[in-house]
Structure prediction request, 190 residues.
Amino acid sequence: MSHLERETAWRVIDSDMALDETYMRVRRDRIEMHPGSPTVDYYVWEGQDVATIVPQTPDGDFILCRQYRHAVRSSLLQFPAGQVDAGESPAAAAERELLEETGYTSESLVPLGTVAAYPTKFTGRHHLFLALNVRQHAPPQLDPAEEIAIEKLSRNQLVQILGTPDFIVADSVAAAFLALRATGGATPAT
Prediction:
């Protein structure tokens, strides 16, 4: 039996907050990887869960957001997404974020699954949803730090951007594959 099969968790000796800002809480854990090993500092971003929504129109097109992402210094396509607030369900957050970021509402919200975007260093999970038969209901209600351009892509166009430098946001890529599978396969019809 390997070491990984014997133990499932490292022993946390103590923890404290290394950085405690509104949108960035970083915890420092002093850990022992296995009994008798030297202790090491391990840093973890304590992030909240996120809801990611794949909006599909009645005619089968997908609604995406183009946003500048400062950490990677690129304008990227992604699906609408946002933080799940305290006491809010992921589905309620999905409906709220869809309306806020795009102005669209959905007839039906279908859970696609949950993914851990960066389980090595980030505590939050991404809850993925397919929003069916979305229609524009109102103008987007963006936060002051948000600039979003809405783009509508056909199924074939969505398939074509998979794996391109324009579409690299991890939760959106995972959501695209799951949504394409849920709506009839991950490859365009020939």
